[in-house]
Amino acid sequence: MTQHDLPEPGIRVLCAGPLALLQDSGRFGVRHLGVTQGGPADLYSWAWANHLTGNLWGSANLEITFGGLKLVAVRDLEIAITGADLGATIEHKPVPLWQRTIWKAGDTLTFAAPVSGLRAYLAVCGGFAAEPVLGSVACVTREELGGFEGNGAKLATGDELSVNRSGSGQQLANAPTEAPKDVLPDFSQPAVLDLLPGAQIASFTGRSLFDAFNTWWQVDDRADRMGVRLRGPTLNCKINTLISEGISLGSVQVPPDGQPIILLNDRQTIGGYPRLGALSPLSASRLAQCLPREPVRLIARGSDAVLKEHRMFRAVFHSEPV
Length: 322
Description:
The chain is of the alpha+beta class.
């Protein structure tokens, strides 16, 4: 690595906001140690932010939840902001979302409050720089792993964020400067979520299965990167006890109160509640953008259709599914 390739300070945090985390694609191959996946709650928006800035799949960017973040550029940067509309401005001028833009040294980038969606993603050309922990920089605060310091800390006022100066000029030249309109999600519309039936679904009562897929559920206030609780009709399962087993992204657990919990990136590695199945990764991404009290609907889908859709998504970024 030459001196030119070394990361340099690129951004200073003026106001940290409630929750801003460094996220690459996640931490894999370590769940046998009890270590969770981490990574972007909205994989779809995270991927497009990196794509627009010419970064390779897996590059780290910032996941900004609820806004309230204020940053100043230490040097000129090319950036892209995707995901939720958090009222982002540079020097009080709105930042165009889902496209590459210039952030001049000394200018202040501010994220206000959610206009549509919950989580925004900020990528910079070259990518953010941090030392991996267990093969990833994904920040999981509960486990004190990842992030800029390696200890799982969220951004704090006064932090200096390092940015890689070098990058593939060819890759940036081949990257789109703006996402096509047909890929832009509309977070103002109610979320319809694909669920792959499985696990203990046959042990739920017929009435519960009818309610599960024919009800507009409501996102509960108890929602974070670990999981999202839904409110609606009570689901009943014939299973009284269950040996804990591995939990995948998007798993839909039903605890004794009958209200589903959909588990996301910072979930526990095992669980003992019966499950209806699991959301597709893209539907888990959509759920991660839902604010409390928003309606969601579960739709049963087959694995072949969901896998085909996911492969088409990954192919845009020249990345094979894992």
